[in-house]
């Protein structure tokens, strides 16, 4: 793959991209067909070097060359050039070439070309590598905030289009692996926060601020958090001090790295403030309310995540521990989290009436009726291929959560996602 520079002026809001865009290291930033829907994401992308695959973009480049005088000199966008060329006579260029130009983003043509298609699980793993790299490199002297913002523009779009599938991948990773723990935990928190905020009918602006805060709440101890996930011994005094101060240091690092959103920084600084949990919601300002929700989500997702010293809790047990107050009842945010994820979120394991063991693939109409893929039959033997089940019928209802370590079947995430 030969990468060439793309001038950032050709990016625009709400216009599907006709090809993929990469960063300077060749990592995928934006897939073809994606729209940039927020001004903050657009500006973040415009401030960094961008590259495209010369072969993939050849049809567009041919159009760009042919229309340079009339369009490029007045800073036309990708879509401007594409639309203008489609209005021109066909002479000088064949119809198939014109189709190649518009095929990646024309809604009448369906999904992008299969030759450029990457499975969602593989795409998400690539995205997580980018996020982990940005968080690991965090310092006031680096461009880590820009890189993180650019990676998240793709991640947010994926999570909005495929909410169950993204949760499935994140919760599967949380339950089974400690690799890149800090980045994956942040991504799981950010995804759950965004979905709960949507349930609460918060604005898109608030959801994005909360998402960025969740992604960076532990940025001052990314490496340490990865180490602690694999460490069985008790924390040393130095480690304990860094953990206790990480919210303040993360907020300071954000400010020093050029983050100008005071709410983002305040949420990170307050996300472990226990006093917010007992203060009436009406008395909290917007940033404090977002920090309180992040606190609940952070504790819940930590409990369903594997550490070297302990197995993950089931989501039901984690919800009881993180979402229920002293009175035995969940507050507004705990209730919203339970409504959003259901009793059995995607990626967790359940047992059905007949003894079958299944992995949850998607939430159902009711909290206790998810869509599942059966892995182990009633005989106790693994099935040759997973079978999708709707648990709304009495003969197939869920009777219990199953601990992660009791499931001995190796999952093919890509194949499972394709069942949906």
From TrEMBL:
Gene3D superfamilies: Hypothetical protein af1432
Entry superkingdom: Bacteria
Protein name: HD-GYP domain-containing protein (C-di-GMP phosphodiesterase class II)
Lineage of producing organism: Bacteria, Pseudomonadati, Pseudomonadota, Betaproteobacteria, Burkholderiales
């Amino acid at each position: 793959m030969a990468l060439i520079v793309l001038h950032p002026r050709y990016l625009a809001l709400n216009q599907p991209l006709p090809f993929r865009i990469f960063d300077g290291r060749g990592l995928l930033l934006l897939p073809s067909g994606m729209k940039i829907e927020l001004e903050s994401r657009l500006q973040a992308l415009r401030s960094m070097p961008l590259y495209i695959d010369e072969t993939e973009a050849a049809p567009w480049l041919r159009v760009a060359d042919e229309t340079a005088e009339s369009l490029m000199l007045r800073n036309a966008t990708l879509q401007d050039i594409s639309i203008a060329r489609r209005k021109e006579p066909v002479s000088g260029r064949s119809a198939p070439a014109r189709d190649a130009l518009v095929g990646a983003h024309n809604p009448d043509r369906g999904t992008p070309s299969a030759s450029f298609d990457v499975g969602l699980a593989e795409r998400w793993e690539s995205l997580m590598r980018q996020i982990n790299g940005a968080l690991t490199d965090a310092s006031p002297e680096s461009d880590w905030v820009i890189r993180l913002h650019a990676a998240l523009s793709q991640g947010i779009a994926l999570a909005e289009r495929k909410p169950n599938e993204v949760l499935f991948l994140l919760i599967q990773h949380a339950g089974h692996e400690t690799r890149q723990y800090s980045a994956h935990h942040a991504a799981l928190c950010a995804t759950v926060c965004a979905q709960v905020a949507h349930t609460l009918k918060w604005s898109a602006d608030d959801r994005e601020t909360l998402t960025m805060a969740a992604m960076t709440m532990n940025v001052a101890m990314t490496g340490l958090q990865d180490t602690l996930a694999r460490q069985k011994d008790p924390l040393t005094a130095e480690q304990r001090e860094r953990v206790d101060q990480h919210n303040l240091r993360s907020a300071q690092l954000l400010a020093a790295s050029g983050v100008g959103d005071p709410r983002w920084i305040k949420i990170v600084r307050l996300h472990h403030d226990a006093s917010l949990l007992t203060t009436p919601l009406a008395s909290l300002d917007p940033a404090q309310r977002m920090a309180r929700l992040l606190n609940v989500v952070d504790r819940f997702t930590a409990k369903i995540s594997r550490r070297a010293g302990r197995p993950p809790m089931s989501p039901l047990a984690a919800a009881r521990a993180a979402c229920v107050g002293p009175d035995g009842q969940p507050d507004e945010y705990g209730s919203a989290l339970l409504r959003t994820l259901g009793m059995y979120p995607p990626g967790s394991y359940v047992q059905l009436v007949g003894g079958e063991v299944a992995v949850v693939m998607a939430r159902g109409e009711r909290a206790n009726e998810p869509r599942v893929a059966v892995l182990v039959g009633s005989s106790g033997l693994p099935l040759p291929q997973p079978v999708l089940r709707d648990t709304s019928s009495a003969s197939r209802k869920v009777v219990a959560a199953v601990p992660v370590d009791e499931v001995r079947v190796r999952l093919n995430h890509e194949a499972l996602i394709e069942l949906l």
